[in-house]
Design goal:
4 helices; 67% helix; 2 strands; two-stranded antiparallel sheet
Length: 118
């Protein structure tokens, strides 16, 4: 059976799209957080408060990993960059797991195994 016409291909593709979309949203929100802190945005302002509130749940596990760097009223939040990197690695791992569920023909599997041995 051709793996491109497999009934599992479309759901797996949708699954990868969903993971990339969620990662993109999280990364964009964390990037806003990083830039707002870096530029010394007023945390009481509506937009800043919204972004900090939404991203806190994503940044919280990393907040004490590194010390915060303060420069003339700006905050260089290393932990937000770490969070962005970790979420990228996790999403990539999830995508790899999803793709492993794809139906593969015997000849296709043989080629992939040969490529891995090189």
């Amino acid at each position: 059976m051709d793996s491109f016409n497999s009934p599992t291909t479309k759901p797996l593709y949708r699954g990868t799209q969903i993971v990339w979309y969620i990662l993109g949203l999280v990364e964009i929100l964390l990037a806003f957080r990083f830039v707002l802190k870096l530029l010394g945005a007023n945390p009481a302002a509506g937009f800043s408060s919204l972004i900090y509130g939404i991203t806190y749940i994503f940044a919280a596990p990393f907040l004490n990993v590194f010390s915060i760097t303060y420069v003339a009223g700006s905050v260089f939040e290393w932990t937000t960059l770490l969070a962005m990197f970790v979420y990228l690695v996790v999403a990539t791992g999830i995508i790899k797991l999803i793709v492993m569920g794809k139906t593969v023909s015997t000849p296709e599997a043989a080629v992939k195994l040969n490529d891995q041995e090189k």
